[in-house]
Amino acid sequence: MNIREVIFEPTSVTSFSIHEFGDGQGPSIAITAGVHGDEQTAIHTANLLIKLLGSQKVSGRIKVIPICNPASYRSRTRCSPFDHLDMNRFFPGNAEGSPTMQLADRLWKETRDVEFLVDIHCCGVDGSTYTLALYEQYPEMKELAEALGIPVVIQSGGQAGQLFVESCHTGQKALIIELPGGQPGGVINAKAAEECCEALNRYLIRLGVLEGELHQSQVTFYGRINTLLAPHPGLFLPLATAGARCDKGHLLGTFEGHPVIAPFSGVITNLSQARYCFAGERMAGVAPFEKDL
Ligand SMILES: [Zn+2]
Q1: For the Succinylglutamate desuccinylase/Aspartoacylase catalytic domain, which residue ranges apply (predicted)?
Q2: Which residues contact 198 (CB under 8 A, 6 or more apart)?
């Protein structure tokens, strides 16, 4: 008998790649993307960073994992097609659990030997770029968010089971970056990916891992995101831009012809495109200025 394997596509759905850089003489950082496999702006950012790091002297150690959830990447879904779990609710995982639990366990173990962790995600095609941090609980995260220099920094709700949340609880210095794109359909916002790669470059220069000029970027801290939901089925039409600042009372759009206004001054994190919304669907996300809290 003879058995031959025929590979019709090289994408593996049960393994992930780790790209390692550096001489180990300095800080250690893990940069992860694709925990939600359809969040392709994040995956593209990680791939841009891998290309950048290939031509740089790295004083320290950097691990980049561009596709943390290969099965959900291949199926372009947030959750795994194996067990329909959202992996970013189950860290630190379980070596004897379902496929997503096992994968979370392996990712968790692979990211334990670093001091810093940046997990890159997407917040939808109607979203904007921002850093999410547990800066109220861990004030030292403010300095790291400033090192990234992404202008909008938002306090995370701290949902348990997230890679960055559980990492912070173990004493690691972990942040999330949210980027526009991803859902639906796994689309890439190429400009956002390029800007995020620049932010990661700034961050690595600030940590002393890469060589380069230090740039001082102005960041603003905001509280948790407040989500404005459609109260019943109806037509939402946007009249603002995601990523823009807003004053209290600022017109975000209309719902069934009635104004939808910002409940406080802050930043518009998400704004739905024009669509018929059903009850409970998001029309907008707004985060208040930290100083107003
Ligand atoms: Zn995500």
Answers
A1: 25-204
A2: none
